[in-house]
User: Which sequence fits this backbone?
């Protein structure tokens, strides 16, 4: 018989096999669980906020929310003003410190001017051995902003020159001799040049 070839063989029965799960079944369950957890966390946060305020979530009125927002904005405004005041105070403090440093440096240089005067006097008497010390000292100070005020042949300027001797002459007053060198420190007159004026 034709059908006898299959007698005794087990024929698979599809009804006995479990249905195949979709490939993304696990991922779908995971996404669902995460979404559910997020909703639970949001609800817990809302309940916590309501508990802190002493009200249930459905008891918080729109007016209360408006008041809370206004308070938040006020605190933010106060914080921003305090921050601005702090920045301004720090800037003023830095400026004062810079002025104090500049003044301290100027005071130190001013106390060193008699040393330069002594070096110039020694050089004027022909003591050349002092020149290396004089040049080195002036080089250090000039690198920080010290400069000599040229006076000879210049029109007399009371802001730059201190006239201690006069000689009759015609025309405008002119410096004809420097008696003591004057100096600027960072564009500020540190010591006026002591001069003899003609005019």
Assistant:
């Amino acid at each position: 018989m034709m059908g006898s070839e299959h007698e005794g063989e087990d024929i698979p029965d599809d009804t006995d096999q479990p249905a195949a799960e979709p490939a993304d079944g696990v991922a779908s369950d995971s996404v669902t669980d995460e979404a559910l957890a997020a909703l639970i966390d949001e609800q817990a946060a809302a309940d916590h906020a309501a508990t802190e305020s002493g009200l249930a979530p459905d008891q918080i009125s729109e007016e209360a929310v408006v008041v809370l927002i206004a308070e938040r904005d006020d605190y933010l405004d106060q914080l921003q003003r305090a921050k601005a005041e702090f920045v301004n105070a720090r800037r003023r403090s830095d400026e004062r410190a810079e002025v104090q440093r500049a003044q301290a440096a100027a005071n130190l240089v001013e106390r060193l001017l008699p040393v330069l005067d002594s070096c110039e006097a020694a050089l004027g008497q022909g003591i050349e051995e002092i020149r290396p010390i004089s040049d080195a000292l002036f080089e250090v100070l000039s690198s920080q902003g010290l400069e000599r005020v040229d006076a000879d042949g210049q029109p007399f300027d009371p802001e730059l020159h201190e006239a201690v001797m006069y000689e009759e002459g015609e025309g405008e007053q002119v410096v004809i001799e420097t008696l003591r060198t004057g100096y600027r420190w960072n564009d500020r007159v540190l010591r006026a040049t002591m001069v003899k004026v003609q005019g």
Residues 148-199 form a domain with the Nucleotide Exchange Factor Grpe; Chain A, domain 2 fold (CATH 2.30.22.10). The two ends are 152 Å apart (CA to CA). The chain has a mean pLDDT of 79.
